[in-house]
Amino acid sequence: MKSCILRGIAVDSEALVLNLEGFEGPLDLLLELARTQKVDLTKISILALVDQYLAVIEGARRVRLELAADWLVMAAWLTWLKSRLLVPAAPEDEDAEIAAETLAARLIDLQRVRAAAIWLGQRPLLGVDVFARGTPEDFTETDRSKLRVDISGLLSAYLAARRRGGAKLQYRPKPMVYFSVQNALERLQRLVGSQPDWSTLDGFLPQGLGEGLPRRAALSATLVAGLEMTKGGRLELKQDATFGPILVRAIEREAAATNLEDQDGRD
Amino acid sequence: MDETESPAPNRAAADAAPAPVSAEALRLAEAAIFAAAQPVSTRSLANLLPDGADPEQVMAALAATYAARGVNLVQVGGGWQFRTAPDVAPALRKIVEVPRRLPRVAMETLAIIAYHQPVTRTEIEEIRGAALSQNTLDLLLENGLVTPKGHKEAPGRPTLWGTTPGFLAQFGLNDLRDLPKREELLIDPNVSLSPPERPAEDAAS
Amino acid sequence: MDETESPAPNRAAADAAPAPVSAEALRLAEAAIFAAAQPVSTRSLANLLPDGADPEQVMAALAATYAARGVNLVQVGGGWQFRTAPDVAPALRKIVEVPRRLPRVAMETLAIIAYHQPVTRTEIEEIRGAALSQNTLDLLLENGLVTPKGHKEAPGRPTLWGTTPGFLAQFGLNDLRDLPKREELLIDPNVSLSPPERPAEDAAS
User: Fold this and answer.
1) Closest approach of chain B CAs to the CA of C83, in angstroms?
2) Chain A residues with CB inside 8 Å of B155's CB?
3) Which chains touch B (3 or more CB pairs under 8 A)?
4) What is the mean predicted confidence (pLDDT) over C119-135?
5) pLDDT value at position B73?
6) Mean pLDDT, chain C, integer
7) B203 pLDDT more than 50
8) How far apart are CA C101 and CA C76, in angstroms?
């Protein structure tokens, strides 16, 4: 780093001009200049410091160095400070005194920061000067068997479930489960052998259907099942009059076999 | 490695003949093995140690130093490493409890079982208005929160589910009656208080 | 952290004699500190040690055991940690990869944060009289040396910065109070404050 290299050598305005960019800003330069006065920072001559700074800035301009604004702002402020310090017993005198003290205090602060940074830098640094164990061992075991639950969580879950269940019921008609053709086939196959003679199809409906849609659905399913079994030659169906009762009868095994052949012929 | 037998001429401090391992070699080996992220091979140690120090002897001496300590020097994976003494390790074991939360689905299912028990899986699904996965039921079973409570006398004899004493303990309840009543809970008039009507199949039985 | 400073007076001083530290207590403490990735607090050690063992005495005995070794017991970051002895570092650097040192700007920024924390970026810039670059802040954050410590109740609610426990561990400090007092820091202009190239190595040799 340029500033580091520079810091060791005696200050020469020309050298500083050329290395201005090696400084971290006007305060950094001021501190470096103050150090050249070779006195305790609490006793530096602000006037001399101002002159040194302005000389450096002037030099920089002479060699047409582009200067950032903050260098010039500091130069302007220092020029003001110098004029006030030089005018004896002016009313603003005190302001200038305070400003000069503030500047000196800031330089001391910055110097302390430098000293602190160096003190830190001289500490044995972990990973550079001292090393910790390369392979720490972890004896921690995680037990995730326990549950974190509470009553309020349980209750709010219940309410959420009921609200969702309730909402579904409101917007969707209750799903009706009808007696299906599949159900009817199973039932008919199981029961029809026990009735050797003609019997009504209604008799094969399941119990407890009540009236209305479920019953009519079950009746149609049973009829479709009956037709299917008739087609397969296991049943006979007849209806004596329009809207009359539908009668059903099982076909005996041998007869069923012949019927089946006939059916194949028809198809 | 043989040089230790005959004192190396370039060695500054010509030690006594039986060549006890130098404190300096011990310190270096100790520090290197301590700081290394991997087991340190004997060859690496040889590069590190002062000329003339026999890595084998140094390691033997170092291992002896640590033999009775809380940390031992062991040979693993082609190198040397410090390891906690086996008899001390259990004392260092620290068990950190990280309790899990139940997933929302499981919590809802549990709540429905708690309030409607004994209840079938189909009934739970009707109340929640969503299918119940086997995973969710398994989770509640594994955690001992629910248990089968016989079968419903209905087609298929579906299993009835209820809560366990473990459920009460987990939630700090003495009795199921300690739960707020359903009527106290469901103050929203739009939420039906009774379970939804059973479908025709159930009604038929 | 304070208890390490002064022997706790409230301890049941049942054992009037300076009770020799048991080998078992030494092994336990040794293993625990060896195993841990971070400094181990005296309080943690007290929980681990057998009843009646005084952590202070155990640690003093253990530190003495390791004082001349390649690995030393040191008090850092509010706890105890084993670290390699500073004088073996040059040898170890041959086999262990060493990170780059922080540049001067980063060290100064770190010093400001350490002394003025919690401090805003603007305040840091005022003290240094120069803008704080993103790189510098990133570098300190990456190294786990500084961390945000809330916001200043001022217009814009700027972030406040402070040092981490890692900062203490990194620089071998037990406590922030181990930093030299501001008044004690050198402001003698005749002392060059340019950081030497390898300050720690110089100090070690």
Assistant:
1) 8
2) none
3) A, C
4) 93
5) 93
6) 82
7) no
8) 20
Closest-CA residue of C relative to B35 is C84
The residue written with tokens 């053709």 in the block is: A181
pLDDT tens-place string over residues B66-107 = 999 999 999 888 889 999 999 999 888 888 888 888 999 999
β-bridge partners, A237: A248
Q: Please tell me the predicted confidence (pLDDT) of residue C81.
A: 95
Please report, for chain A, how many H helices and E strands are present, in that order: 10, 4
**Tens digit of each residue's pLDDT (9 = 90 or more) over C16-44:** 455 678 889 999 999 999 999 889 999 99
Which residues of B fall within a CB distance of 8 Å from C94? 47-48
Please answer whether residues B93 and B109 qualify as being in contact, where contact means their C-beta atoms are separated by less than 8 angstroms.
no
List all residues of chain A from 228 to 267 with a beta carbon under 8 Å from chain C. Answer: none
Query: Smallest CA–CA separation between B66 and chain C, in Å?
Result: 10
User: Closest Cα partner for B98 from A194, A141, C181, A225?
Assistant: A141
Which residue in B173, B115, B172, B110 sits closest to B142, CA to CA?
Answer: B110
Neighbours of chain C (3+ CB pairs under 8 A): A, B
Burial, B37: exposed, middle or buried (Cβ in 10 Å; 0-12, 13-18, 19+)? exposed
- Please state, for a pLDDT cut of 90, what percent of chain B lies above it: 45
Which one of C83, C127, C180 has the shortest CB-CB distance to A119?
C180
Integer CA distances (angstroms), C87 to B51, C84, C202, in order: 18, 8, 10
Query: Is A109 part of the contact surface with chain C (CB cutoff 8 Å)?
Result: yes
Of residues A13 and A127, more confidence is placed in A127
Instruction: Give the residue among B85, B84, B80, B86 at the shortest CA–CA distance from B31.
Output: B80
Determine contact, residues A106/A91, Cβ cutoff 8 Å: no
Q: Report the alpha-carbon distance of residue C56 to residue C15 in Å, rounded.
A: 14
User: Which residue pairs from B134-138 have beta carbons closer than 8 angstroms and sit at least 24 positions apart in sequence?
Assistant: B136/B103, B136/B105, B136/B106, B136/B109, B137/B109, B137/B161
Min Cα distance B8 → chain A (Å) is 31
Q: State the amino acid at position C81 in one-letter form.
A: Q
CA distance B68 to A20: 63
Q: Is B16 helix (H, G, I), strand (E, B) or coil?
A: coil
Q: For residue range A147-167, list pLDDT tens digits in order.
A: 888 888 888 888 888 888 776
Whether residue B71 and residue C34 make contact (CB cut-off 8 A), yes or no, is yes
Residues in B closer than 8 angstroms to C30, CB to CB, are 69-71
Indicate the residue of C30, C69, C95 with minimum beta-carbon distance to B44.
C95
- CA distance, residue B184 to nearest chain C CA (Å): 44
ipTM of predicted complex: 0.67
Does C68 sit within 8 Å of B23, measured CB to CB? Answer: yes
Q: Give the best-scoring range by mean pLDDT among A200-204, B182-186, C90-94, C122-126.
A: C122-126
Chain C residues in contact with A126 (beta carbon < 8 A): 83, 169-172
Which residues of chain C are within 8 Å of residue B27 when distances are taken between CB atoms?
69-70, 85, 88
**B118: cis peptide before it, omega within 30°?**
yes
